[in-house]
Amino acid sequence: MLIGIISDIHDNLRHLELVSKELNKLEIDLLVICGDFAMPFTLRGLLNFKCPIKAVLGNGDPDIQKFQYQLENLEVLKPLKLELNHRFHDFTIDGSRIGVIHNDEECLTKALIESRLFDFLCVGHTHKPEISVSEKTTIINPGSLVGWIYESDGEVPIGYATLDTTTKKAELHQIP
């Protein structure tokens, strides 16, 4: 199964549309979102994806969390195959246990990694694209769809990640 992974959309519908075109071309089977949609209207941008979506909320999503039940029942969002979780989600595909967390609570993320329960942990929040391995867990941070961070590092690329659960290979991708 090919999974697309994105995070930190922060209302950037233009970049969300660019990424949806890229991921639809790759014919992903599932989209994972690691939080920080920002405002509820951003959920409409997910209608461009042709696959089911598993997502968690981030620290920048208080309005979505507050109105989650009402949003899930909006007619315009009914076509979405969206499974929206508050702060954490885990599931198993092709024998790999996958966790999803926004990562704004670093001690929780660290505990999940140290638990050694996950083959893959998808994280966001830092806006820094990175794939690393800690013991048996591959940590995948796809970066962000806004490209900026709040540190002196300056601009970072706009991007996403993919995970092939058959080959167990994760890759980072940039949007030009």
Q: Any key phrases for this structure?
A:
176 residues; alpha/beta; Purple Acid Phosphatase, chain A, domain 2; six-stranded mixed β-sheet; 4 helices; 11 strands; 31% strand
Characterization of the model:
There is one protein chain. The chain has 176 residues and is α/β, with parallel strands linked by helices. It has a single domain, classed as Metallo-dependent phosphatases (Purple Acid Phosphatase, chain A, domain 2, 4-Layer Sandwich), CATH 3.60.21.10. The chain has four helices and eleven strands; from the N terminus they run βαββααβββαβββββ. It has helices at residues 13-25, 62-66, 68-72, 106-114; strands at residues 2-6, 30-33, 53-56, 82-85, 88-93, 96-101, 120-122, 130-134, 137-141, 159-164, 169-174. Strands 4-3-2-1-10-11 form a six-stranded mixed sheet, with no helix packed on it. The model has no long low-confidence stretch (mean pLDDT 92).
Quick summary:
The protein contains four helices and eleven strands.
The CATH superfamily turns out to be Metallo-dependent phosphatases
Helix content: 10-25%
Order of helices and strands: EHEEHHEEEHEEEEE
Write down the CATH topology: Purple Acid Phosphatase, chain A, domain 2
- Helix/sheet category: alpha/beta
Question: Spans with pLDDT under 50 lasting ≥5 residues?
Answer: none
Round the mean pLDDT to the nearest integer and report it: 92
Strand content: 25-35%
Numbering strands along the chain, what is their spatial order in the largest sheet?
4-3-2-1-10-11
Give the end-to-end Cα distance, rounded to a whole number of Å: 26 Å
